[in-house]
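Feature request, filed as a ticket because there's no other form

It would be nice if the structure record came with a short human-readable summary line next to the tokens. Right now we just get the raw output. Example of a typical job, pasted below so the devs can see what we mean:
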Amino acid sequence: IVQSITFSTLFIITPLTWMLPALPALSGATLALLVVCYVILSVSFWFICSIIVYAFSKLFRGKGSFEDTLLAFSLLWAPSFMLGLVGPILAFLDYLMSIGIYISLFAISFIWGLVLTIIALSEVHSYGIGKAILSIVVPVLLIAVIALSVAMIWW
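Raw output as currently delivered:
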């Protein structure tokens, strides 16, 4: 669990630190509060998503534990952590070019993290790749349908 939290927290903080010089109007206390809130919300999001994926993994008769699911789900963010190391290099490029490169690299790292997570879930829960994909896709679709239903009712 500690390793998973460390991966997730480092993934959040590293890209944020290279963007901080672009935010000179914010005071140090405000930036510290933003970083703390961002870390808390991101770790909470990671934990809640892991609970949902674990529940669906159990519905598909997965054999892994919750801690293993936490670790497997943290692999989603591990490649993106490496992207934070590229941030300072991108700061020397043109602003629009650096944003485009960062978004492209983020998309590639997210897809690679998703592949790693699917393989890890299939190994942890002792089932095939198809069930691992379903244990991620079904909750996303379910949450999207609920969110759209609530938005339609609210609107």
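Something like this underneath would help us a lot:
Helices lie at 2-19, 28-59, 66-74, 78-83, 87-90, 95-124, 129-154.
The longest helix spans residues 28-59.
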